[in-house]
UniProtKB/TrEMBL annotation, chain A:
Its EC number is 4.3.1.7. GO terms for molecular function: cobalamin binding; ethanolamine ammonia-lyase activity. It catalyses: ethanolamine = acetaldehyde + NH4(+). The basic unit is a heterodimer which dimerizes to form tetramers. The heterotetramers trimerize; 6 large subunits form a core ring with 6 small subunits projecting outwards. It comes from Brevibacillus parabrevis. The lineage of its organism: Bacteria, Bacillati, Bacillota, Bacilli, Bacillales. Its cofactor is adenosylcob(III)alamin. This is Ethanolamine ammonia-lyase large subunit.
Automatic annotation (TrEMBL), chain B:
Keywords: Bacterial microcompartment, Cobalamin, Cobalt, Lyase. This is Ethanolamine ammonia-lyase small subunit. Catalyzes the deamination of various vicinal amino-alcohols to oxo compounds. Allows this organism to utilize ethanolamine as the sole source of nitrogen and carbon in the presence of external vitamin B12. It comes from Brevibacillus parabrevis. The lineage of its organism: Bacteria, Bacillati, Bacillota, Bacilli, Bacillales. The gene is eutC. The basic unit is a heterodimer which dimerizes to form tetramers. The heterotetramers trimerize; 6 large subunits form a core ring with 6 small subunits projecting outwards.
Amino acid sequence: MNTKTTVLGQTYQFRDLKEIFAKANEDKSGDQLAGIAASDSRERVAAKQVLADLTLADIRNNPMLPPEEDEVSRVIEEGINEKIYNEIKNWSVAELREYILSHNAGENDIKRISRGLSSEMIAATAKLMSNLDLITAAAKIRNVTHCNTAIGQPGVLAARVQPNHPSDNVQGIKAALYEGLSYGIGDAVIGINPVIDTADSVKDILTMTKEVMNKWEIPTQNCVLAHVTTQMRAIRQGAPADLIFQSLAGSEKGNNAFGIDVKLLDEADELMRKEGTSYGPNFWYFETGQGSELSSEAHFGIDQVTMESRCYGLARKYNPFIVNTVVGFIGPEYLYDSRQVIRAGLEDHYMGKLHGLPMGCDVCYTNHMKVDQNDMDNLGILLSAAGVNFVIGVAMADDVMLNYQSTSFHDIAAFREVLGLRPAPAFEKWLEKMGIMENGKLTARAGDPTIFM
Amino acid sequence: MEQQLDFLVDKVVAELQKKLSELGEKAPAQAVEQAVEKVVEASMQPGAQPSVEVNGAAAFQSDVSEEPERTAQIPNPQWKEGLDELLTSTPARIGVWRTGVRPLTKTMLQLRRDHAAAVDAVYGEVRQEVLDQFSLFTVETQYDNTENYLKRPDMGRILTDEGVRLLQERCQKKPQVQIVVSDGLSASAVDANLKDVLPSLLDSLKSYGLSCGTPFFVKGGRVASMDHIGEVLEPEVLVMLIGERPGLVTAHSMSAYMCYRPRKGMVESERTVISNIHRQGTSPVEAGAHIGTILSKMLEQKASGVKLVL
């Protein structure tokens, strides 16, 4: 394995794979905080140059976090198709990048190859891609999933309606839900982040959303994003859950900080097979985001792009209905400004898609980041062009419970209108029946939540 | 971890608010304490999920007088009275209407205005007269500048050598109670709340017969800077009044982090916190009194955080 190169007259000798991977990243405050980022542009390009010439076998044979020490590594390792891997193991990362982007590689070819790739190999290609490379590659891949309804088809941009309330007031949640539905938002999921993490509270919200879905015959799915154990308790008590949610980290230690492990996820998976209310076969909702491993000191000196990719390696075991990178929630010590958030959003979307996952993105920011709503407009349009499965809809982008800004109902309607995208087919039919949409356009009736009262 | 603790207390506030709306009456102080205890216990169990900051409990009331009246903009709603009902049930920005697929100008400007207030809180500075009012002198952490403060939380946890020297020179050593004020992520939280929190805290300490060291202000402070201060001054208990991450509903929310015998290597579960201190949340005057009570219990039980029984 060659770890040495010369750039602009200066020779660089890298220690190991971790150092090459970290320094090949585009600039991120989280990698700086971890003390592993490239010191300047020249060192960054040197690392990229070394990475480009590594073979896929080099990456697999020098594990950054060995399977013996980490169960996420084991899940990733066990998921690799050996036949496919053996066909491509002598490819360099540069060759893999060019294959993915080439006209010779169609969607099915890429999907087949991806079964022979580890999360680290996928992360490696992302480090050699420009923003437009990430968009071009992701746009080739559509990962369609089905829970009660299907999303992810070409030409479809779905959305989660996120009607959170600062004290879980059921009427208040309903009010924001009606507003969202009236803008054609909610085909991915009706998903609520609860303030109170108890089974009773989760059950109340699931029951209310299910009642609304039944009353208006809305073709979608519901979910309350409490801790997985709380949801499991609620489901055992008879709560109607179409989807089960959990945040994931890219290492066993990181997952322990979230209060989960593979065994618990397996248990929840089993429970959903038996007691979930949806058609399936996909009934998981996962959330991820760069930096969470560093924040729980569970990154093992590995950069945040690679750790994020490992989350997708874990997610893929469970064939989720939706996966969402909550890209700008974590704060400026991991993603400092709009440039870093936009880059991370495109990286995550691409890496998830290449894992075969139904990727969505919470295009978002907190108030102590150097980001504003204009940056969200930009990232939203870029991801919509890249074929993102879904984005998040919050009333005027302002989440009054989580205290951050995402994309608004108006924004999603605009992404659809500007790029000629449509809601999920079953949902669009329902919108037409309700008189909210006609020929893919909002009608004069759209935007009035009282039509659901 | 700071966020995690913020979350705990914000969760308490939310739970309380839910209880209040169920009871339809004001909760007695006891209920507050019970709820704090319950949530802190539940969330400190191994495996509790680090989660997000929740800070919207007071969202129903308008923030400041300049807040425009919240009226629905929908020209011909199917059910006019129903619309009012929806609006009163949530602080979310609903009933806003649209032009094509874009928001109306007024709605868009309101969002930008609220964001500007939040950003100002992060990049603003505490007014000197607020500090002068309580004769607080200023020490700095190694944060250097706001950009660095945001990127390097570790540097906001260590005082400069000059700061340490100032503390040694001007502060009473080994006080029973040490009060520290810091801008944190919202300078305007200090501007807005200190004048109410601090006098009521001092009164409360007096009523418990507790003595207080020399209070001061830390510029560019993170919560864990209390550990370094603890090493230098060795107080029995320390309370840090610090600005929270600003939201759009309010940019002036403050937290009080309390610790028994703060020192290097403290873990978050050893700190006790009251958050959401602002006019529409936990009222600053009540918070001051409540902090006094908690500090006296810490001294009694020689413990803080999860080990403290409230």
